[in-house]
User: Fold these one by one.
Assistant:
Number 1:
Amino acid sequence: AQAGRSSRNWGARRGGRRRARSGKARQAPAAEDEDVVMADRPAEELGPEAEAAHELLKGLLQRMGMRATVTVRVEEDQLLVDIGGPDSGRLIGKKGQTLDAIQIILGKMVARRVGRSLMMTVDAGGYRERRADSLEELAHRLRQKAIDSGRTVALNPMSARDRRIIHVALRDAEDVSTRSEGEGDQRRLLIVPEKV
């Protein structure tokens, strides 16, 4: 949901912090300010969580020495946090593992700040959508492989988020079913043709 009229610029609110500087550049450049775009809901209801996510993630990226922008919006009681800028690609990691770690850390930090846990998704440069599209294509290719071979197809171990994307992609398929097996980092998804 978009609601430009209720957006806030949390970085600008702390005016005076962005004065012109001279001399040597700082080793860890601060994350650039970006609007915190909020859903069309009362600011007092969702504002503190969005503000906390924006401020805490900017601080985290600054300590990591990353040049990036942070945009936060709120949709259906979930914080959607997007990292942009020249260093955003470095924050994804292999199969999104670095991004997942940042999401977990930021979620705990925000929960501690506001006193309650909440749903949150952290993205960087549209990676989550690209990853989901790739996994959906993979799901349909492997579904066909399972049907043609008549054998169960086992995928490599993957995160719970990735497994869920494939489960959802195939949940309406009548000729295959999906299930997970294994524990921890070795948990993987199986695509099972119905005749097996």
Number 2:
Amino acid sequence: PHLISETSSPQHELSSTVFTIIYFADFNYEPNRGTLDNILKNIKPLLDGLPDFPYLIKICGAGLPDSFVDLHIRATDNIEYLGFVEDISLTLNHVNVLLNPVLKGGGTQTKTIQALAAGITVVSSKTGAQGIQHDVCGEKLIQIEDADWQGYADCILSLSQTKNTVSMTPPAFYDTYHWKNVTLRIKSSIQALDNL
């Protein structure tokens, strides 16, 4: 299981005029590069087509070649590449939504757990939400059908209009994913095995 170590309320400092979206990953891993391509080629053009929708996509993570960044990110409006970020929690304090349109890869998406722990709403593909207990996330984890690019754009626009992207993550999420609680469940399972 993926673990979190803090349950305190985040201190968000959001722009009142620009809806800020983040995607962060290690881009040395091919599925993460594929997810970035999904954002740049399939979702961003739809967001660009929305009238009067000021937005910014922040991309964080190591492993993108300079030539790719120059051609596909720096030369593009409404997108900012921050490179490797030492403490992603500080960057999360300035975003409305984590976008995770991953279509392949294995395991639980740690970025989703980190964002939810920071009180950030996550808009994810169903593939990207695998391995996460949805029932403990409340409305903070929104699942979109894989490759439903218009669904992502519609969801982001709707979230920007409700202004409710930074709300408390349900206590049940922390009960499930806080490292102390996970450790206690593991200890209890081991004790149960010893009693067999």
Number 3:
Amino acid sequence: IELAASQIEQSNPRQILTALQRDITELATDLYDVPAEHRSIRTVLDQSWKLLNEAEMKALALCTVFQYRFSAEAAASVLDRSDYLQLLQNLVDKSWLNTEFSGMQREFTMHAIVRDYGSQKLINMGIETKYNTHQRHCDYYLHFVSLLETSMSSARMHQLLTSIRQELANVQSAWRWAVLQGQYELISRSCIALCD
């Protein structure tokens, strides 16, 4: 808020809002009473990024494939590491991730600014890492949807449908990825499960 308010002499509120919507990490001030390391959101994020170890940096970047929220189980699939729970907890402790509870299940969320910043880090990790991360995300969520087909009891089916509604943004993202990659078999299996 202070960074945005410092722009009021150069820009009107609508211009500030437009700039924030375009790239909030560019928000900065040159006020002399603000320490240099706090003069822009990008600088704050860069400073905090340097405090992460290599595994935490990679885990955060990979988690940017999630839309809005994700479970530890989904993160295990995307991170593909046995120490995923410790990495997630480290990122929560360092304020890169937040946690919420949906019933009894702990879920992780990431602020949009952090997600945008981490997405750039994922891109910097190279096309193969980005591709593999999106593919693991896709595989997890489309398999998740395909579980409906094997759910015979109405209670289990209701539980799965509720979970899918909560994870709809991730399921849609997985479908988009599968379509872009021409993975029609994966899409077909999940559609059959939804239509049965």
